[in-house]
Design a protein that fits this description.
With 177 residues, the protein is an alpha/beta fold. Helix content is 31%, strand content 17%. The protein is globular, with a radius of gyration of 18 Å. GO terms for molecular function: methyltransferase activity.
């Protein structure tokens, strides 16, 4: 008769302990990871991505649509200033990022896409481009990508929403998954 041992006790960290283990300073706009949902449809996705950006130490690049500031304010549950880059012309901005040496990776279903599990952590400044919730990344922007990443799915849907897909990719690029 074997004797069962008790599972190890799980110790939950207190909020202060969690805060003390995090970076002591806010990240700057020169960090190496940028989430770029440049063709958003739903404001709720932007708020979720803003929270993920804070979690992984990334910046968020968003278009100057009239409704975007309110969506970001509503989604910023941390109530602290966030690193947000305002983009007037998404295509010109992406081209400028590439010309400045950033790696531009699109989250898109493409023949050449790398599976999420095989995506290496970002070693250079990387922009993760997220497309429109219904139409994906516009065709004219695909030529500005250095690569694509695909999130495999076994269910009936063809894709995840932008906030979930972006969060998964950001955690992977940040080296936290």
């Amino acid at each position: 008769m074997s004797r069962r041992t008790a599972p190890p006790a799980i110790r939950v960290r207190r909020p202060r302990e969690i805060r003390d283990r995090r970076r002591s300073r806010a990240h700057s706009c020169w960090d190496h990871l940028v989430a770029a949902p440049l063709w958003p449809l739903h404001g709720a996705n932007l708020g979720t991505l803003l929270r993920t950006c804070d979690a992984v130490g990334a910046c968020l690049a968003v278009p100057r649509f009239p409704w975007v500031p309110e969506a970001l304010d509503r989604g910023n549950t941390l109530r602290r200033p966030a690193c947000v880059h305002w983009v007037n012309d998404p295509l010109a901005w992406l081209e400028a990022q590439r010309n400045a040496g950033s790696r531009v990776v699109g989250v898109e279903l493409a023949d050449e896409a790398v599976r999420l599990a095989d995506l290496p952590a970002a070693r250079v400044r990387t922009v993760a481009v997220l497309g429109h919730e219904q139409h994906g990344i516009p065709a004219e922007a695909l030529d500005l990508l250095d690569g694509a990443v695909e999130i495999p799915m076994v269910g009936h849907g063809s894709s995840l929403n932008v906030a979930v897909a972006g969060s998964l990719v950001l955690y992977r690029l940040a080296g936290l998954l």
